[in-house]
Records
---
Amino acid sequence: MSLDPRVVFLARVRADSGLQRLLQDPAVASAAVSIAHAAGFAVTAAELARAPVPSRQPREVAVPSAREPRPAPAAEGDRIDFDGDGLPDAVRHGDHWELTPQDQG
């Protein structure tokens, strides 16, 4: 039995204590909600801050070990392609991410 992707997403958010600390800042929480929406997850800032953890996590939901290297911090001009279509869905500008306009065609 597989878990709902939304539940797995929220569990991953909940498992990251650093992210949970960042989500206490309303500006960060708002950006996280925008990014989650762009990725197809209908969530609120409150849900991200108190995300439920499923009673049984699938094997592919692994929390990285403390010894694993952390990704480099985001830099000006970095891009995120949430849906894998080769077009950036968000671009880093200064200290924040901006969603790029998407054709609704």
---
Amino acid sequence: MSLKWSALSIAIVGIVCIVFGVMGIIGAGDSEQEVADELAPVTISALDATYDQISAAYSAVRGTDTPEESVFLGKKTSLGLARSNLGTISFVRNTSILEIILGAGLVLASIGRFKQD
């Protein structure tokens, strides 16, 4: 009887891991779309190149106290935050995939525990 309770608890934890993993992947996809919408004229694939261009332009006018300096600094900050958000989204997606794999392993382990009894 003890093995059945043990297997049942392992199966429940595995199913919860799978559900949270799927929710994480869905949430990451929604968040990535939101970032893409906020960057409307810039695509996600061109984000790094655009950031590098703006960063170089800002470096050229840094310390001049001109209006262009503020504009370039604002654009550089905005693009940098978008890059940071995309990195976090990628981390969440990868973690969710690992969580699904862990959940599937726990469910398979619980099946093995059921067969032992």
---
Amino acid sequence: MKKGKERIIYDNYDLWETYSESAIDALVDMWGDEYTDDDVWNMIYDFDADDYSDEIDRLREFFSDGTYIIFGSVGRWDGRRTGFDVFNDFESAYNDAIKDCDFIKIYDVNGHFYIECSHHDGTNCYEIKKLTDAGVRYYTNWDENWIDKRSISYIQNKLINRYSVLPRFAEKVYGCNRTEYVA
């Protein structure tokens, strides 16, 4: 079976690998060989902060036009927990998802939009999909009906499998192919 290619949107799990060469080149251009390890790391952190800010702005704009579902699992000291949330405000949902996390990886695989983030107790793994108009109605009818006996997991599965579509971030924002596979 072919494996979909991860199209990285943002990743700070290995800042040295991502930015060290560019940071050293920039420092050499500015100061020649007169720089320290701290200078390199400060430059790396600056590059990372700029990239993160740019990507969050793109994500905020991309997810501003609809209702979305974020679902997945959270690594906790007492095991993994699953769940979902429906949102219109990307920034709030994103900040809740990455709360207490030091490392973040955001990526697209053939239209699927994923967020992985790690903290002291484990790793959180999420996917985001866009709800269809029918999905918004389905969720609202369930959420506002206090006598509805359908379980949360039943509603989550219906929203994910029937009432949502892939966001296709990498395709729409970066012009990537609709599908790409690793060789």
